Structures are given as structure tokens and as C-alpha cells.
Amino acid sequence: MSRFEYAPAPESRAIVDIKSSYGLFVNGQFIEATDGKPFKTVSPASEEVLAEVSEAGPADVDKAVKAARKAFDKVWGPMSGKDRAKYLFRIARLIQERSRELAVLESLDNGKPIRESRDVDIPLVAAHFFYYAGWADKLEYAGVGDDPQPWGVAGQVIPWNFPMLMLAWKIAPALAAGNTVVLKPAETTPLTALAFAEICQQADLPPGVVNIVTGAGRTGQALVEHPDVDKVAFTGSTDVGRAIAKSVAGTHKAVTLELGGKAANIVFEDAPIDQTIEGIVNGIFFNQGHVCCAGSRLLVQESVYDEVLARLKRRMGTLRVGDPLDKNTDIGAINSAAQLAKIRELSQIGEDEGAERWSPDCELPANGYWFPPTVFTGVSQAHRIAREEIFGPVLSVLTFRTPAEAVEKANNTPFGLSAGIWTEKGSRILWMANQLRAGVVWANTFNRFDPTSPFGGYKESGYGREGGRHGLEAYLAH
Amino acid sequence: MPTKDTATQRLEVRKTYKLYIGGAFPRSESGRSYVVNNAKGKFLANASQASRKDARDAVVAARKAFGGWHARTAYNRGQVLYRIAEVMEGRHQQFSAEVSASEGLSISKARAVVDASIDRWVWYAGWADKLAQVVGSSNPVAGPYFDFSLPEATGVVAVLAPQDSSLLGLTSVIAPAIVSGNTVVAVSSYERPLPAVTLGEVMATSDVPGGVVNLLTGSASEIGPWLASHDDVNAIDLCGITSDDEARDLEIAAAGNLKRVRRPAAEDWSADQGLSRLTQYLELKTVWHPIGV
């Protein structure tokens, strides 16, 4: 099958109005940072500077936490659940109204294909606010007692892979439960969080209920370690998660952590083959593989290995890598130079350790950060590419003979975030789901998300759940 | 000090108080023991003083038992816990005497503590087949999937049992962990370890598989750091740690493999226990199952 040729179909950038510089969003206003250096956020697809963003230092973080505390004590805490719900519904609607703008902004700043930001990220953002809005006046039914109480001020640190979706996962349940928040977006993707700050203004959300402090690790550390933060929520790497777990030791702070993964995507010989190939591609190449729950370890039953590999390679040959704003693009840009270097390094290690590397012929743009869809075969469980999270479009393929062997290999990892099962046999799906030590198990699908569906890991993939009633529980003292 | 039953003049056969690991009763591999006195300071027994190596052996036993225990039906686990209560009832007098001596309670107050402990096993036994309904969910996702979330045991739980309440407290920290399918390595109260050893004997003679509950007598301060930093332990209850600094250090050690940590807090063992210790050691698994023809 030869590749279809498409004319470029770029989404217009005219819909977004990016300012040349942004302050911090504290107490309902954009303010200058007082003790940090400004930094630049670039489009990873072109390395074009999009805006200058303020770095919040410890004094700025303190200001934001004080604003959040005051809003918690005076406004948001005492407010009826019914009114909190209305603010959240308002925010959900504003996001829907501005969805195209937010999608373009997300793709510009993050590098993900517009098809994904438009059809997955932003609709899910609105859905999360809509879902949790409805909980705000029903907390006594959340299963944590008759009189559930918020923790107070939530300090939230989110990653760059789904910038606005992770913001929604953090802020929506926190506000519904009656907490106020200080949120730090990732340093490479701050723009949609700053647009969200404007949405809070448009919604007339009381000042201080949501505060956005931009910056890198130092800012995040100041936030997590601030003594007046009651609840810490973090999504990111397992190493940073460990550091956070240490830093809150001996304090009163409640913590939830969504960390790394190395998910097994398990293909049985009776799997529906076309659907499975799409699922494998979606599992590892969705969002350039910058997905903590990515199906990065493909386990294929030996009897269908040759067929699955041949079809997978053929399908990979049709993936279109390039301009994130082009509506035909399947794989966008790697989010940062640092991440690209990490993907290159681990891929090189894969080769050095003896695995066989393959990528389709694919022309990569001259500027920006790019990595072709890649598959490694001949991978053993001991290889680093089978054990470590690469967080890029790199798939490691292993084989198995029996369901028991598949389970053993799938569970042979310190992570436990997600897993996939491909088979036509319903009883096997449920048996496998029982055996897998992972927080989310997808059967004959992969990378599905929904605000009603709890998400989170076992073991070193972290603790706590986001989404659904369980995600709300994480923001209620109990 | 030989004692005689004055009615019969018969010399009492005393018990050797040992550890309970993997269903067996070893002495500490370290060869150490320590003197256990009653509340008035009078000699009761020598207890085994568990070491780092004993703790590691216990973790191995607990991990080995986890798969089988966790795979049992909830109904079966409920019955096994209920059986613990039944067997304890038959040893009521022995437990009462040990609690009375350890905690300095009158025999009638000690009996009430034993009553409450047995009742607590019954209470938790009943939770086995209800937890999934109370804390699980079916999730109405916007798509053609049956999406459901079920609680599952997190794995091996290290429990540093309360120092004060030697039986009721111990029961209240072990039962909620094992009822959902976890296995436990517990370090007893240091000064009041005897009821824990007897509880181990109950485990061995009820239907609890070896390794599901492992009981170490000795110092939580000494053994705690090895359990907190052990990579094959999934969660830790710091209940028996009384120093804030120690608790903080153990929480830091536990972060190494991201253990689920229960911090020490003021506890009322006689009160209703609620769900928090049960849910502390649960993972939630969400499964997306397709719907189609």
C-alpha cells in the first residue's frame, strides 16, 4: 500500500492571541513575579519563541498560597455547594466556547497534533469540569461520610504531556470538593494554563480560588514544600514523585501521585487483527508516546508474531509525522530538546544492548524536535528499553506463549499504571484483567479516558485516583 | 522461678514465646530474646527479639502467601477471618490473663478487651464480600464500554502495631489489611508482646494460610526502618511509632518504592473503626470492556 498524498491542511493560528509576556495569576490578577527570572516558551515544532513567561520564586509562591488560603477561609470554603457547582459549570461552558482556540494554543505550545488536542484533550477538559461541577453540591453522597470536608489549599504540579487536561484533572475535583488551588504548569507548556486563568476571570470566579504560578522544578518544590499547603497532587516522573513523597514526610499534607508507567499491551492469537494494529499504534504513538500509560511494551503471542509485526510496520509506514497544526498529522513534535535527547539516548541503548531497531522512511522537518515512530524487536525483559519509561514514540516488542507467561511478563515491572488486552474471548479478558497488577486495564481498546472513570497506578506508578467518585475522594479529608 | 498450682501441686508447663513466620514458630535467627515484665514489673517471660533478618524472612513469607490469599474468593476470606474469632473464643481465658498482665488491667476489664477483639474480627470478617460493592463502582463513560472499578489488595503490608493496646489494637491493625487479600508482617508492642504470640498460635490453628500473617516480637524502632525501606513491601502502617522524628524518617524511607504510608495518629481502639484502614491498603483497578455485537 503506498502512502496517500495529502495537501497540507493547516488549522489557522489566527484564532489565538498570544501575548508577548505573561505574569503570574495570583488572587484573580496577573502580577509581576518578584523573585524569579522570566523564561521563554517555544513551539517544539519550529523552536519559535511563543511568549515570555514569569518564573515564580518562593516569595511569589507564598503570595499565591496566601491568596488561596484567604479565598478558602473567606469565600470558597463558606460558599454553598450549589454555587460552587455553578461556577464550575460556567467554566465548563467557557472552555467549550473557546475550545478551538484552546486546541490550537495547546498544539502550538506542546507540539501535539491538532487532531488530538481538538478531538481528545479539550473536549475531555470541558467534560471534566462538567462532571465535577455536578458533584459540588452532592459531596455527602461521595462515600466519605455525612459531612465531608475539603482539605483546604491544594498545591498541584502538572506535566507537559497533556497540559490543559492535567489541569482539569487537578482543578475540577479540587474546586468541587471546596478546596482552593495553586497550580504550577510545566515550564515548557504554560500557555493553556494561563488561558485558563483568563477563563477564571471571565467566569467571575472569586479571586484566589485558582492561582497559577509558572516556573520549573524550583517553583514546584517551593509549592509542594510550602507549610500552608494541605494537599499535594502531582503528575509526572516517578523520580520527582519519590522526592515529593520524601518532602511531605512528617507533615500533615495529604498526597496523591500519578507517576510513570511501562504498560504491557498484550495481543493474543485470536485478537481482531485490524483493530489490534490500530490499538497498538494508538497505544504507543498517541501524543508522540508522551503518555504515562502508553502501551510501550507490546507482548505478542508467538503464533501471530510475524503477522502482527508485518502489519504493524506497514501501518507505521502510513503515519504522518509533521506540523502539529496540520489536520492530517498523526505524530507531532517531541515536546522539548531535553526530552528528545532522552528518547535518543534510550533508543541508542536499545541498539547497543542488541535489540533491533526499525522506523519507516519518514522525512522530519528541519527545525524543531522530532523523532520517528520506532519499534524495537528482539527485546528481552532485561533490556533497559523494556524496563524504563522512554516517554516517546518507541515501542519494545516481546513475545509469549501462554496466558500465564503473558501475565508474568506484564507484571514484571516496578510500575503498574495501565495494561491492554487484545482477544475476542470475553472470559479471557476478565481473567487477564484480574491477574494484571495495573490501575487501568483496557480490553480491545487503549488510551481511553473519561471523567467518570478512575485513573491511577499500582506500585511505583503512584497512589490515589483521578476521575470519578474516587478522584473526588482524594480532595476530601477523611 | 518455678510456680506451682496450689490445688494440685502440679508444676506448670510454661510456654516458649516465639516468632510466627510463614506458618512456623521460629526463634529469632539472631538468637536474641528480651525480658517481658507485667505492668507491675514482675517477670512474665522471655520473648524473641526479632532482627532485620527475621523481618526479611517474614516479608519473603508474606510475598509467597500473597498470590494464593489474594486469589481466594471474598466469601472464603470472610470465613477464614470468622474462624479466627471462633478459635480465639476458645482461648478467651488465656488471652484475658495475658492482656491483664501486660496492660495492668483487672481481669474483668481484660475480658472486655478480649471480647472486643473477638468481635472486631467478626466485624472485619463480614467486610470481605462487601468491600467491592461499597468502594467499587461502575462508571458511565461516554462510549461503548462497560467500565468498572474494583478494589484489590495492594500486596504486602508492614504493620508496626500499637504499643499500648496489645490485643485489641493489634487486631484492629491486622484484620483490615488481610480481609481484602493483603498479607501482613506485624511488629508487636515491644513491652506487651505476649498476646501477639498467642494470636499467632490462633492463626496457626484456624484456617489462615501460613505467611498471611507474620508476627514479630521486638522493637518497632529497630525493625521498622528495614521494613520501611524494603522494596517488596507495598504499604506500611506506622501506628506503633511514638516519636515524630522516627515517623518522619520511616516515611522518607518508605518513599523509596512509593509505599502507601499510614501515619501515626491518636487512635481509640474501642470506637467504631470505619473504613479508613480497610481502604488504606486497597488499589483500585478500572477495567474498560468493550460493548458490541
From TrEMBL, chain A:
UniProtKB keywords: Oxidoreductase
The UniProt record lists the keyword Oxidoreductase: yes
Keyword presence, Magnesium: no
Pfam families: Aldedh (PF00171)
GO molecular function: oxidoreductase activity, acting on the aldehyde or oxo group of donors, NAD or NADP as acceptor
Entries under PROSITE patterns matching the protein: ALDEHYDE_DEHYDR_GLU (PS00687)
Gene3D superfamilies: Aldehyde Dehydrogenase, Chain A, domain 1 (3.40.605.10), Aldehyde Dehydrogenase, Chain A, domain 2 (3.40.309.10)
Start and end residues of each Aldehyde dehydrogenase domain: 31-476
Alphabetized InterPro entries for the sequence: Ald_DH/histidinol_DH (IPR016161), Ald_DH_C (IPR016163), Ald_DH_CS_GLU (IPR029510), Ald_DH_N (IPR016162), Aldehyde_DH_dom (IPR015590)
Catalytic machinery residues: E258
Family designation: Belongs to the aldehyde dehydrogenase family.
Name of the protein in question: Aldehyde dehydrogenase family protein
Source organism of the structure: Kribbella sindirgiensis
UniProtKB/TrEMBL annotation, chain B:
UniProt keyword Oxidoreductase, yes or no: yes
Protein name: Aldehyde dehydrogenase family protein
Pfam family, one: Aldedh
Organism: Kribbella sindirgiensis
InterPro entries from the UniProt entry: Ald_DH/histidinol_DH, Ald_DH_N, Aldehyde_DH_dom
PANTHER family assigned to the protein according to its UniProt record, in alphabetical order: ALDEHYDE DEHYDROGENASE-RELATED
Alphabetical keyword list: Oxidoreductase
Ranges of residues in domain Aldehyde dehydrogenase: 29-261
Keyword match Oxidoreductase: yes
Any one GO MF annotation of this record: oxidoreductase activity
Gene3D superfamilies: Aldehyde Dehydrogenase, Chain A, domain 1 (3.40.605.10)
